[in-house]
Write a structure and sequence with these properties.
The complex is a heterodimer of chains A (about 160) and B (about 500). Chain A is about 65% helix and about 0% strand. Chain A has helices at about 1-10, 20-40, 55-75, 90-105, 110-125, 135-155. Chain A is an all-alpha fold. Chain B is mainly α and about 500 residues long. Chain B has one domain. In chain B, about 75% of the residues lie in helices and about 0% in strands. Chain B has a two-stranded antiparallel ribbon. The longest helix of chain B is centred in the N-terminal third of the chain and has 35 residues, at about 105-140. Classes of the chains: A mainly alpha (about 160), B mainly alpha (about 500). Chains A and B meet through helix 2, helix 3, helix 4, helix 5 and helix 6 of A and helix 8, strand 2, helix 9, helix 18 and helix 19 of B.
């Protein structure tokens, strides 16, 4: 805490500090999406109001989003606008949840439901430091039985259960 | 009497054994996720959307509706016993409900919440049955310009009634409209924002984006902050029935909450959460002794809990009669209907009376079941609260993955949902409400279609939206709402309504 405070005061006046404002970041995000959308749609035929072509509405919306993004960002520059607080556990959660889902997506049709669940639960368990390995294994076992009985036995979904050779 | 013959059709459909079972299932699942903090009705309905593939449309809708209003019942249990909102719509119930529990009156608080909800549910059901047919007749006279203006009004109202920054909410709607355009343009066949990815040519499924933003985004958000200390206050709930004095205080609160919730639920952007906040503010204001609030006033439980259930149910009215979703849950309901090839709108009542009235009748039956599920069986739900979140999130994560996979029958959709999970987390960090985005996402293609049709009718002249009287009226209403929310006096009030703690 003391460390961050000493770091805090000399940089308070620098323009980079304003980036920590929630609304500045939100506004920049909207602007970035809008600019990206305008760039992607640069070759879309626009047409006229009477005959709207593929690009008419998308480009209209991108310009609107751009304008709104600027307003949000400017609002964030006002003094006293809320700042974003660092969350140290966030990266861990973001990465493990995403990785767990990607592993599930990769595995479900190739390795079958059981191994896909093992991968999802195994990788997903890294999202928190509170799960013990034995607890993770027990959770995986319970979830496999539950999923199998609801989706395969109960609903008769045709998801491969075991690896397809 | 048309009213009673309609209800007779409805009960005929709702009372079949299968539909009774689905209403019960919906009510149980709704109570379950209502009790559990960290998972809400939007994510749950999105996850269960694929299951409705295999059901009759009416059975699927009965179940999904049960989840939505069932969650309003369950949410109060956690609020009262643990001082954590099980749902966002029971945030205000924590204030007085938990104080009552601390004074050993948890039973009375739970009963006030459940009985108030039941009364509100009955009234709301009757309101839907009474008001839906005339509204649908109005809807049938609408052309493309009127529909477009109605959707503009709906989106504006959704912004005004949401909490937080108005500009950010509008930006979120526009973002949702943009995401709704991804895929093939139905009119010209052109590809939009598909980046050459084959899986995107059919557009993004509403369940995928909702599971991503609400289900997965919430998991990441919950995990990245320290787990709340859950202290279950009451080991045994001794006395369920409120005292005579409680009843005297409860009844007017329930009536006021029901009236307020019924009105706010119909408004676009309204629904359960707004109704509960507004009802709490109203109770505090109308009380002779406002200092009792925060100290365990039973009105502070009965009013908001009646209001959130009334609001949850009357928010079905615009969806069923006009085909326009007022909140994210209704947007998913429209998704459930389109899965079965049913276009929601005013014609639904005449073309599928069984579906329409069956669902309404099931709401009353579902509410009756919920009183039983929530009061005598309260002990079961209390036990559930002992399951720590570290086990819960693994189960939610898995059901999200399977839900997305089965609704699209493609593994690529799971990756897309993972992407939207990160998006949901980023939006949460930046204080951007995702619900308006989902509304925009669902309304985007509809709005573009009606805009194009209107332009064709008028020969490219945008004045058509002003020349048509109904369209003009709707746009003026939208304009007035925007001006109102910009006025400092109203803006202050709006913030007060949402910051009642």
């Amino acid at each position: 805490m003391a460390l961050s405070d000493s770091h805090h005061s000399p940089t308070a006046a620098s323009p980079w500090h304003l980036l920590a404002r929630t609304d500045v970041l939100a506004g920049l995000l909207f602007i970035a999406i809008a600019v990206f959308g305008l760039w992607v749609s640069r070759h879309y035929p626009v047409g006229t109001a009477l005959r709207m072509n593929t690009g008419y509405v998308p480009r209209l919306l991108c310009w609107m989003l751009l304008g709104l993004g600027v307003i949000v960002a400017v609002q964030g520059l006002r003094s006293g606008a809320p700042t974003i607080k660092p969350l140290h556990a966030a990266w861990r959660a973001v990465l493990s949840v995403t990785a767990a889902l990607l592993a599930f997506a990769f595995a479900v049709e190739r390795l079958g439901l059981v191994l896909a669940i093992v991968l999802l639960v195994g990788i997903g368990s890294f999202a928190t430091s509170t799960l013990r390995p034995l607890e993770t294994a027990a959770a995986a076992a319970v979830l496999i039985v539950m999923t199998w009985s609801i989706f395969i036995l109960g609903l008769g979904l045709t998801i491969p259960v075991w690896p397809v050779w | 009497m048309e009213f009673f013959s309609n209800l007779a059709i409805g009960f005929g459909v709702a009372l079949t054994p299968a539909n009774l079972a689905f209403a019960f299932l919906g009510a149980m699942v709704g109570t379950l996720i209502g009790v559990l903090p960290g998972i809400g009705p939007i994510a749950t309905i999105a996850m269960l959307l694929p299951l409705t593939f295999h059901l009759e449309p009416v059975s699927g809708l009965i179940m999904l509706a049960g989840i939505f209003y069932g969650a309003q019942y369950g949410g109060s249990t956690t609020a009262i016993l643990v001082n954590l909102p099980g749902e966002t719509s029971s945030v205000v119930t924590c204030i007085d409900g938990h104080q009552m529990a601390r004074q050993g009156r948890a039973g009375a608080a739970l009963a006030a919440a459940a009985l108030g909800s039941f009364f509100a549910g009955c009234v709301a059901t009757a309101l839907i049955a009474g008001f839906a047919p005339p509204l649908a007749r109005v809807g049938q006279s609408f052309g493309a310009p009127e529909y477009f203006s109605l959707m503009v009004l709906g989106l504006v109202a959704a912004v005004v009634l949401a909490h937080g920054s108005v500009i950010k909410a509008i930006a979120m709607i526009v973002l949702g409209l943009l995401i709704g355009l991804v895929g093939t343009d139905g009119n010209t066949g052109g590809q939009r924002f598909t980046f050459g990815i084959r899986e995107l040519t059919d557009g993004i499924d509403v369940a995928t984006i909702a599971i991503g933003v609400f289900g997965l985004g919430e998991i990441i958000s919950n995990l990245s902050r320290p787990e709340e200390q859950r202290s279950l206050l009451v080991q045994r709930i001794s006395r369920l029935w409120p005292t005579g004095d409680d009843f005297r205080r409860m009844v007017p609160a329930v009536l006021r909450g029901t009236a307020l919730g019924s009105v706010l639920g119909v408004l676009p952007g309204g629904g359960a959460t707004l109704s509960a906040f507004a009802a709490y503010a109203a109770e505090k204001k109308s009380s002779r002794d406002p200092s009792r609030f925060g100290q365990g006033a039973i009105e502070g439980v009965a009013g908001p809990e009646s209001a959130n259930n009334a609001g949850a149910q009357t928010s079905f009215i615009p969806m069923l009669t006009l085909g326009i979703p007022g909140n994210a849950v209704m947007a998913l309901m429209i998704g459930a209907l389109t899965i079965h090839g049913i276009q929601p709108g005013p014609q639904i009542m005449t073309e599928r009376p069984g579906l329409f009235w069956g669902m309404i009748a099931s709401m009353w039956i579902g509410n009756l079941m919920l009183v039983v599920i929530n009061l005598p069986l309260i002990g079961i739900w209390v036990q559930l609260l002992r399951v720590p979140y570290r086990f819960l999130y693994l189960a939610i994560l898995l059901f999200c993955a399977i839900g997305v996979y089965t609704v699209n029958n493609a593994a690529s959709a799971v990756m897309l949902a993972a992407f939207f999970g990160v998006v949901g987390f980023v939006l949460w960090r930046l204080d951007c409400e995702p619900a308006p985005m989902i509304l925009g996402f669902v309304l985007g293609p509809l709005m573009e279609e009606n805009l194009r049709r209107a332009m064709k009718i008028s020969g490219g002249d945008p004045m058509i939206f002003i020349d048509r009287k109904i369209s003009l009226g709707l746009l003026v209403a939208a304009g007035i709402l925007l001006v109102l929310v910009a006025l400092p006096a109203i803006r202050g009030k709006r913030e007060v309504v949402f910051k009642e703690n």
